[in-house]
Design a protein that fits this description.
heterodimer; A: alpha+beta; Dipeptide-binding Protein, domain 1; Dipeptide-binding Protein, domain 3; 2 domains; six-stranded mixed sheet; four-stranded mixed sheet; 29% helix; 21% strand; globular; B: mainly alpha; MetI-like fold
Chain lengths: 543, 298
């Protein structure tokens, strides 16, 4: 594939995390572990219960993807044993082989035979067609999702053809090499055609390495090994148990005490990691890019954020570097719409961000500019604009929102905080039923198509700000079809500058996670995105 | 020689003020622990009222340069994980705790008091039904009921007040009803009935004022519980929302995760909660002993 990652990327990432001072020698040993052993149960944590059950296609949160992934398979997946994700690290799951044809207009998948769903039914190309017709909301789709957050990932698919039971062809409207990367994300499992999609909200019929044995709401999810799994000798583990522990400190105490074997992706802060390492030196802590940004969503369809001056004032007001220090204790980096190097490939570097709202060398200058903009619309710290800022009722969200409220207060925006449970959050944001929000946006693969179509395309359910620019749409389409990696990168830089200049969704930082496991946990290797390494097929326990 | 009237005149209110001071001194001598509790509550009241004056920093202002900072000359009790001044947050947290504690106690006690008054005075089947309903409500612990209410209503100050006040209602109703049952049989009440005074007037004019003693004791006793429940709800993120300071939430945010690195994060809010609940209980116990005729002199 011509659009491969540049070679220095993995080296840069490793240098970055080693520099963070937390990487353990054991972390690098994990990938080259000794001969795997079978057996054992891994005890894992969840930060909240599953608001949409196992219905990955109806959610956009790691809270669902992490515990649901072991039940499913994709057509293709990022190699669980490789830390860096790129088109070169994609391996087949339900597809044995695949082939691009007609200059990236047709993608042909040759499917595995003798694959069975957890209920014993055979897997065929009908299931593939069913899944993607449902996702792209084809006129003749046999099923419809209640909420379809990543609909725009598949907007370029013109038709899915099930040529025979073991061949599926994706016909595209225009060339889109990135489609394969989106198909390799944990967000893209194949659903069973014979199972109504609503079933996945309470149960899971997949083809994956583990079957759901019991889901006791608010307490735990128990999974057991799938004895009929199509990869012989996998999974290694007999089972998985995910315990719901809402309180962050309690989760940390549980892993420190050895009650749990691994942390929850995206939930271990730098300070927490330092404390864990000090308390239990043998814990294996791996800093890695979450592919998740902190950002501000402002509803451009509702006052007062329909006024570009107010949106720009907000963007100018927030001191990104101070936020990274205060909220993440240095465990994040500044960036625009895509994760910057070394965490990602496509993002603007700190140098490139200079001159964009919020990135002046002196934060006081930014605050002064923000105050001036607010003054122009009739507000000041003495006569503040009162708004309600929404965020999810999860500690990492609330910390960020608390910081933002203080920043806004200084420029004449008096914000009160409203915490929303996950079950309501995505529906509320999709409806645009809010003024301003402190949000985290995670992106499946580190790829502009996945990010831009999902979060900035006109009409996309995940475009929470409802920002819509014809100019930006043309640029997004152009970069999607661009086969020259350098030209595509340049186009992406221009898009990101435009988005920040328009305060479409001001990005505050890109976060690192300090993923923590006990040394006996092998092959559970964090990738450069939290959404793609939860399959657990290769994980084993050396206990 | 006649004494000039001005020399001996007592200004209006002076006698009652002197009487109040004397009563307080008498109370402090007889119940030194209760007085100590009263002092703690007074300190909390003053802190809450003058929080804006007593603060050294804006309680929601973050400081990236000094997160998890140890106590020093600028930040007397250190800073939290966002660099916010813990002393200023505790000072403002007193306001939240007091407002929520007093408002929920008064709301629950007044509502429960009225139900107890009417139930006890009317008697009969309505009393029977009311008491069974109260039995059900009282069967649920204060915290559990408050948790359910708070989860249903969502985290906001007014919702927390409602959530905490509802479990207080049956307790208040029981106490007031018990007083009413004995008062309504007294001769002056019978006399009022014989004179044809309306029931509502008898209940609210002749019986209610005589339940004020138990009512005060009840309120003082519930205040500590209400403050503790508020702290618990906030600890469980169901109380007063961030970034406004609440003692319980200060414990919740910092507990366990940062406690090892910065123990002052949990120490100072914990001490504040303990002192206020302790003070409220001491004062409540002493007032009960003083105002309850059965315990007077014990």
């Amino acid at each position: 594939m011509s659009r491969a990652r540049i070679a220095p990327f993995p080296a840069l990432l490793i240098a970055f995390v080693v520099g963070a001072g937390l990487i353990s020698p054991a972390a690098s040993q994990t990938a080259s572990a000794p001969t795997p052993k079978s057996g054992g149960v891994l005890n894992m944590m969840l930060r909240e219960d599953l608001s949409q059950g196992f219905a990955i296609h109806e959610t956009s949160t790691i809270s669902t993807v992490w515990p649901a992934m072991p039940c499913f398979n994709n057509l293709v997946l990022f190699d669980p044993l490789k830390k860096t994700e790129s088109v070169e690290t994609i391996i087949g799951e339900l597809a044995e082989k695949w082939s691009w044809q007609d200059n990236f207009r047709n993608l042909v998948f040759f499917l595995r035979k003798n694959v069975k769903w957890h209920d014993g039914q055979p897997f065929t190309s009908k299931d593939v067609k069913f899944t993607f017709d449902m996702l792209r909301e084809a006129p003749d789709a046999p099923a419809k999702l209640r909420i379809n957050p990543r609909k725009d990932w598949y907007a370029n698919i013109e038709a899915i053809e099930a040529a025979d039971p073991h061949t599926a062809v994706f016909r595209l409207k225009k060339p889109q090499p990135s489609l394969l990367l989106m198909l390799a994300s944990g967000y893209t499992p194949i659903y069973a055609a014979h199972v109504p999609p609503a079933t996945y909200r309470t149960a899971c019929v997949g083809t994956g390495p583990f079957k759901v044995k019991e889901w006791r709401k608010g307490e735990f999810i128990e999974m057991v090994r799938n004895p009929d799994y199509f990869v012989k000798g996998r999974p290694y583990l007999d089972g998985l148990k995910y315990f719901v522990i809402v309180e962050r400190g309690t989760r940390q105490a549980a892993i420190q005490a050895g009650k749990l074997d691994a942390s929850f992706p995206g939930e271990t802060t730098k300070t927490a990691a330092e404390q864990l390492k000090k308390a239990v030196p043998q814990l294996v802590i791996t800093p890695f890019s979450q592919n998740v940004s902190d950002n501000i969503i402002m509803n451009v369809k509702k006052p007062p954020f329909d006024n570009p001056k107010v949106r720009l004032a907000v963007s100018h007001a927030i001191d990104r570097r101070a936020l990274i220090q205060a909220v993440h204790q240095g465990g994040a980096v500044v960036g625009a719409a895509s994760a910057p190097k070394p965490l990602g490939f496509w993002g603007l570097s700190e140098k490139d961000l200079m001159g964009l709202p919020g990135y002046a060398a002196r934060p006081a200058d930014e605050k002064a500019l923000a105050k001036k903009l607010m003054g122009e619309v009739g507000f000041s710290p003495e006569k503040p604009l009162r708004v309600e800022i929404v965020t999810r009722a999860i500690a990492v969200y609330v910390d960020m929102a608390s910081f933002v409220i203080n920043e806004l207060k200084q420029i004449g925006i008096d914000a009160s905080l409203k915490q929303i449970e996950t079950a309501q959050w995505h529906a509320m944001a999709t409806r645009g039923d809010y003024q301003i929000g402190a949000n985290l946006t995670g992106i499946g693969p580190d790829d502009p198509d996945a990010n831009l179509y999902e979060n900035y395309a006109c009409g996309s359910p995940r475009n929470y700000s409802q920002y819509c620019s014809e100019e930006v749409m043309k640029m997004i389409d152009a970069q999607s079809q661009e086969l020259d990696p350098k030209k595509r990168l340049t186009l992406n830089y221009a898009i990101q500058r435009k988005l920040e200049a328009d305060a479409a969704r001001p990005i505050l930082d890109w976060k690192l996670d300090y993923f923590t496991v006990w040394p006996h946990v092998k092959n559970l290797i964090p990738h450069q995105s939290i959404y793609n390494f939860g399959r657990m097929q290769e994980v084993w326990s050396d206990k | 020689m006649a004494v000039r009237p001005t020399a001996i005149a007592v200004p209006v209110g002076r006698a009652s003020r002197d009487g109040l001071v004397a009563a307080v001194v008498r109370f402090a001598r007889k119940k030194p622990l209760g007085a100590a509790g009263g002092v703690l509550m007074l300190v909390m009241l003053v802190t809450a009222v003058f929080a804006d004056v007593l603060q050294t920093h804006d309680p929601i202002a973050t400081n990236a340069a000094y997160t998890l900072g140890a106590p020093n000359a600028e930040h007397w009790l250190g800073t939290d994980h966002l660099g916010r001044d813990i002393y200023s947050r505790i000072v403002h947290g007193a306001r939240v705790s007091l407002v929520v504690g007093v408002a929920s106690t008064l709301l629950g006690s007044v509502l429960g008091g009225i139900i107890g008054l009417l139930s006890g005075y009317v008697g009969g089947k309505s009393d029977l039904v009311t008491q069974r309903v109260l039995d059900i409500l009282q069967g649920l612990p204060l915290l559990v009921l408050a948790l359910v209410m708070s989860a249903a209503l969502g985290p906001a100050v007014h919702n927390v007040i409602i959530a905490i006040s509802i479990p207080i209602v049956p307790r208040a109703a029981r106490v007031i009803r018990a007083s009413v049952l004995s008062i309504r049989e007294m001769q002056y009440v019978e006399a009022a009935r014989a004179l044809g005074v309306r029931h509502v007037r008898i209940a609210f004019r002749h019986i209610l004022p005589n339940t004020i003693g138990p009512f005060i004791v009840l309120c003082t006793a519930q205040l500590g519980s209400a403050i503790l429940v508020e702290a618990t709800l906030s600890f469980l993120t169901l109380g007063v929302p961030e970034p406004y300071p609440s003692w319980g939430r200060m414990l919740s945010v910092s507990a366990a995760e940062y406690a090892q690195k910065a123990p002052h994060l949990v120490l100072f809010p914990g001490v504040a909660i303990s002192l206020v609940v302790f003070g409220s209980n001491l004062l409540g116990d002493a007032l009960r002993d003083t105002l309850d005729p059965r315990l007077r002199g014990s």
